[in-house]
Specification:
mainly alpha, elongated
């Protein structure tokens, strides 16, 4: 009795969930937990003890990277590389929600997956900063000026694009969460997603005041993503019994 009441509201679906989709639900559930661990918790544990200057001053950033080379590589690899884990989660969300609403589920999932692909595409730029930092450490004065200019050219589009990425990603989470209210996922998971999207919009609107502090919204997102993973696992269980 208790196991039935703790599961997501799969009984409200319009179509039966096919057991042939179990694979994507299993992968999606595991990837959701992996993303929170490797893409949010681990980078946070690395970042907060050290931090780094979010500045367009290329000289300051290159010097910092040279002094924290391994730390920089680990932080950027975890933060950006983990986007690959989020992609199957949003694919699984679409499959689950398509039983209720295909159109908006597709829009939300496509936006979310597109954001993750773009997020991962930042990774070569961060590796490029490592290369520039290595060159900067051994360069003469004239060469250093060129390297500083190159570093600022790399970071400028990344910093400028970030608010847009965050906002579009929050919109995708909001769309998916609103569809979740119709069933398949538990209501509290849907409300968590709505709260995550709202907190992002508040955070990004205060970006000029709080700087990196606006990333606190990812903590709310992490709770939602864990809830999504839990729901996907139980959706798999429900599909297996049908």
């Amino acid at each position: 009795m208790s196991s039935e009441t703790s599961r997501p509201e799969s009984g409200h679906t319009k179509e039966a969930l096919s057991p042939s989709w179990n694979g994507i639900f299993i992968v999606g559930a595991g990837a959701a937990f992996g993303y929170v661990l490797l893409g949010i918790i681990a980078p946070a544990l690395l970042y907060f003890p050290v931090g780094y200057p979010r500045t367009s001053d290329g000289e300051t950033l290159l010097t910092f990277i040279a002094d924290h080379r391994a730390w920089w590589l680990a932080l950027q690899t975890l933060t950006l590389g983990s986007g690959f884990l989020a992609i199957p989660v949003f694919a699984a969300i679409f499959v689950a929600l398509s039983q209720m609403e295909k159109g908006y589920a597709a829009v939300g999932s496509v936006l979310a997956i597109s954001c993750q692909i773009l997020f991962v595409s930042f990774y070569p730029g961060t590796l490029g900063m490592l290369f520039l930092s290595d060159q900067y450490a051994v360069a003469d004065f004239e060469r250093r000026e060129d390297l500083v200019a190159a570093a600022e050219a790399v970071t400028a589009p990344l910093d400028a694009y970030n608010p847009l990425y965050e906002t579009v990603f929050a919109a995708s989470v909001l769309i998916l969460s609103l569809v979740m209210l119709r069933g398949v996922f538990s209501k509290w998971t849907a409300f968590l997603g709505i709260a995550a999207a709202a907190s992002e919009l508040v955070g990004v609107s205060l970006l000029s005041l709080v700087g990196m502090g606006y990333f606190w919204w990812w903590l709310v997102f992490a709770v939602w993503f864990l809830a999504v993973g839990w729901n996907l696992w139980h959706i798999r269980s429900a599909a297996s019994t049908e």
